[in-house]
Design a protein that fits this description.
Helices cover 43% and strands 14% of the residues. With 336 residues, it is an alpha/beta fold. The protein is globular, with a radius of gyration of 20 Å.
């Protein structure tokens, strides 16, 4: 199988995997606004996929839309056998690659031995990477941080990872302890590039942290031309058009919001029908659709930066379903 990382242009862009954010619905919205070169899914726990009880939920997280491609499955956990089991299934689900998360700072993920906790268990990290590789022909990449507690940990941790020769290595230029509370350590990029050259020249190097939009990508690409790719995370909350040079109007943002609502309703209906069929066959006791509350986390992406935005958003936050949101948006349009 071709390594899709090799086919990307220099300075390619990636939407960061963000739990509770970069699901299939939101990725389709971003694709409409202006897509990155590569999408990542939100996190999928390999042990959830390996269990009969958790597999259905894992597969929902791994749903791929046509506009997603190329897309990389972001997976995490600490069981090497479970990494192999999920890795073996991803190609058939439409993924171009899989990425092992070794940088998530979430305390629950870390307590379970995954994410940034793997920085403290390099032997386990190597075994998980090895088992995933053996089970798939997809390119296997890694996303990590400089260290768990101290910045200087990168001097041992990054060479260790590079010696595993991942297809790509994404480095969030902070430690787990720093979270996003301090500026990203861009001053370390020259040394990191030197480590890549010394230990794994073919690994694609992707930088993450404080890169907000395409303008910033082009600035850093000019400053550090040997960096292969740039990952944008929180910047998408400020501007869903961040992978373009476009400055959206209020009307365009409202169109994206309505698209998000439409896609949510479509997925909700699909899920309810699927679970109703399963219930009728005695396979699943659940007959539920998508939870509405998480949808509220997206409202600020579209409703900000214009007069009356805070008031409109406050009304939307009081809604209990998409129908109520649409009523409020229609009333707001009439008042304009």
């Amino acid at each position: 199988m071709k390594n899709f990382w090799e086919e990307l242009p220099k300075g390619f862009t990636v939407l960061a995997p963000m739990e509770g954010v970069t699901n299939a619905i939101f990725r389709q919205v971003i694709a409409q606004a202006g897509r990155p070169d590569v999408f990542f899914t939100e996190f999928t726990n390999v042990s959830s996929y390996a269990s009969e009880k958790g597999r259905a939920n894992a597969l929902e997280r791994l749903e791929v839309a046509p506009s997603d491609r190329p897309i990389v499955a972001q997976i995490w956990g600490k069981n090497p056998e479970h990494f192999a089991e999920l890795a073996g299934a991803l190609e058939g689900l439409g993924f171009a690659g899989l990425d092992i998360n070794m940088g998530c700072p979430d305390r629950h993920v870390n307590a379970a031995g995954g994410g940034a906790a793997m920085i403290r268990t390099p032997d386990l990290a190597e075994e998980c990477l090895t088992q995933a590789r053996r089970a798939t022909s997809l390119p296997v990449s890694v996303k990590t941080r400089l260290g768990y507690t101290y910045v200087d940990e990168y001097r041992e941790w990054l060479p260790f990872l590079l010696k595993q020769e991942p297809a790509a290595l994404t480095i969030h230029l902070r430690t787990r302890k720093e979270m996003s509370k301090v500026p990203a350590h861009f001053e370390l990029i020259p040394e990191i590039l030197g480590l890549r050259k010394a230990f794994s020249p073919k690994t694609k190097l992707i930088i993450n942290g404080d890169i907000e939009d395409l303008k910033a990508v082009r600035k850093f690409a000019q400053q550090f031309p040997d960096i292969d790719g740039f990952m944008i995370g929180r910047g998408v909350f400020e501007n869903p058009y961040c992978f373009t040079e476009h400055e959206p109007t209020r009307d365009e943002l409202m169109q994206l919001l309505n698209l998000h609502l439409d896609l949510f309703d479509q997925q909700d209906t699909k899920l309810r029908l699927k679970r109703a069929r399963a219930l009728s066959e005695g396979l699943d006791e659940r007959e539920k659709g998508l939870s509405f509350e998480p949808l509220k986390h997206y409202f600020k992406i579209y409703v900000h930066g214009f007069p009356g935005a805070a008031e409109l958003r406050a009304k939307m936050m009081g809604c209990k379903n998409t129908k109520e949101v649409r009523v409020i948006l229609a009333l707001d349009d009439r008042e304009e």
